[in-house]
Amino acid sequence: TSYMKEKNFLPQVDSNLCKACGYCMMQCPKGLFISSKKINSHGYEFMTIDEEKQCISCLKCIATCPDFAITVISL
Hints:
Blueprint: E1 9-13, H1 23-27, E2 33-39, E3 45-49, H2 60-64, E4 70-74
């Protein structure tokens, strides 16, 4: 019997903090991060989540983002 509860997370990108470095895109094993094709107030084409329900809750995205632009909500 496992004492660890399975967690499910929903990642979110703060478009104003994202500088489009692409680290989240490179680290995500499911390839969920894509360019939004929109420009934020700082002139960056910020990242967004594609098919967020496919997230496997590895949290690599939040650990790798140098600008703290990614947060996760526990479901």
